[in-house]
Automatic annotation (TrEMBL):
MTTase N-terminal domain segment(s): 7-127
Keyword Thylakoid: no
Full protein name: tRNA-2-methylthio-N(6)-dimethylallyladenosine synthase
Function statement: Catalyzes the methylthiolation of N6-(dimethylallyl)adenosine (i(6)A), leading to the formation of 2-methylthio-N6-(dimethylallyl)adenosine (ms(2)i(6)A) at position 37 in tRNAs that read codons beginning with uridine.
Keywords: 4Fe-4S, Cytoplasm, Iron, Iron-sulfur, Metal-binding, S-adenosyl-L-methionine, Transferase, tRNA processing
UniProt EC number: 2.8.4.3
Binding residue positions for [4Fe-4S] cluster 1: C16, C52, C90
Organism: Devosia insulae DS-56
Localization: Cytoplasm
Predominant location: cytoplasm
Reactions catalysed, as given in the entry: N(6)-dimethylallyladenosine(37) in tRNA + (sulfur carrier)-SH + AH2 + 2 S-adenosyl-L-methionine = 2-methylsulfanyl-N(6)-dimethylallyladenosine(37) in tRNA + (sulfur carrier)-H + 5'-deoxyadenosine + L-methionine + A + S-adenosyl-L-homocysteine + 2 H(+); 2-thio-N(6)-dimethylallyladenosine(37) in tRNA + S-adenosyl-L-methionine = 2-methylsulfanyl-N(6)-dimethylallyladenosine(37) in tRNA + S-adenosyl-L-homocysteine + H(+); N(6)-dimethylallyladenosine(37) in tRNA + (sulfur carrier)-SH + AH2 + S-adenosyl-L-methionine = 2-thio-N(6)-dimethylallyladenosine(37) in tRNA + (sulfur carrier)-H + 5'-deoxyadenosine + L-methionine + A + H(+)
Amino acid sequence: MTEHTPKKLFIKTYGCQMNVYDSDRMADALAPHGYEPVQVMEDADLVVLNTCHIREKASEKVFSELGRLRDLREERRANGQDLMIGVAGCVAQAEGDEIVRRAPAVDLVFGPQSYHRLPELIARAHNGAKVVDTDFPEEDKFEHLPAAKKEVTLARGLTAFLTVQEGCDKFCSFCVVPYTRGSEVSRPVEQVLREARNLAEAGVRELTLLGQNVNAYHGLDARGRSVGLGELCARLAEIPGIARIRYTTSHPLDMTDELLEAHRDLEALMPYLHLPIQAGSDRILKAMNRRHTRADYMRVIERIMAARPDMALSGDFIVGFPGETDADFEETMQVVKDVGYASAYTFKYSIRPGTPGASMDDQVAEAKKTERLQRLNDQINAQMHAFHRSVVGRTLPVLIEKAGRQPGQIGGRSPYLQAVHMDGPTRLIGQIIPVEIVEARNNSLIGKIVTVAEPNPASVIESQAIAAHI
Ligand code: SAH
Ligand code: SF4
Ligand code: F3S
């Protein structure tokens, strides 16, 4: 270790949106200590890999990256310079010391609950110690993490993630999350509102609330009353500037009436919901410890559609869970068609050490998993394209987010999270405007602006009023 303090920071993020949010918080926590983010790993004095443990491939990627970092450090040392290497996130939490054993170049290892201690951990590592911090502390890390700075947030754009809940108590038998993220914790309402107001003031128009089980949210308000996600969304929708709210990921058992009422009543709550079922066969759902049957799930879908008839759905699916037969898999295919998902993430089952699934008999052969995944993907792709085509001819409110690839073009998102490209002036960035969808491409839509609103707050309200009538 050299004496000089590394000042250039590069964080590489793997895994879910919660890691994306966490990486930004780590950068915020280090900014007051003189660390500036850089775009290229080779320029950094401190590299943090914010890792994901969800599937074997995800966690193995980390070790190959660590190999490259070790080489980079060797080069640096040959030139009398240095590099500090940190591993954060879910692999850090799951493997702790083991990481330093497998990859001795690593200086510090810290889990998702330690980010507010990062400056202190770095200082300890500077003294030459290998630092491993994977405790689940009592204190509230969010209370200790600095709020996002306005100028930083602005650079990050019009849409922002906001973690409102962490951890999971569900213990699906395939999943590492309850072990890597700990048990369910909800952030207090006022803390969430404060952060959302900061984001809104920095120009953010759309919030995506995050949590491993976000709809299990039950934060305390200023009077000590427990507030559900529906009420939280209503409070967030009152913040000037916040026009759209989304949330992810939800568990079917936590779709409460209160939340469904929010979907019915809140215009800001977008009609696109990620609600994983994982598999269609009750036998497999039971082995997965999902604690709901296929019929339970279909009833939840009915309630959602009753509250918000234009809701589009997405999901997660695992193929080849231990014991899954061809007949079980056909039930998954059937559920995909019955629900009519507009999109979905699909995965081959990956054995995770320490989870109950890992020691189950009847592991499914890799070739079988590949074959099933292919069929499932074909079905979901067909449905996704059909969904995109179904909005052609409609006029949708689009949040304009950025300039397009071609000069004179702009791009944004429909309420259903579809990317929409159109001709238009960049002064519309930040506004929600009615756009007629004229063409569906594979992964995006082409639109035509119906009325060009002027860039003042009144026109934003006007265009939302138009949107409400579509
Ligand atoms: N908290 C979210 C996401 C968990 S991880 C939720 O409860 O839905 C995201 C997805 O990864 C899961 O929904 C599941 O489909 C998939 N997944 C989790 N563990 C897996 C494993 N061992 N093998 C394959 N896919 C897995
Ligand atoms: Fe994992 Fe299940 Fe918890 Fe989702 S609900 S994070 S899949 S254990
Ligand atoms: Fe991966 Fe951890 Fe997210 S395991 S999916 S980074 S919660």
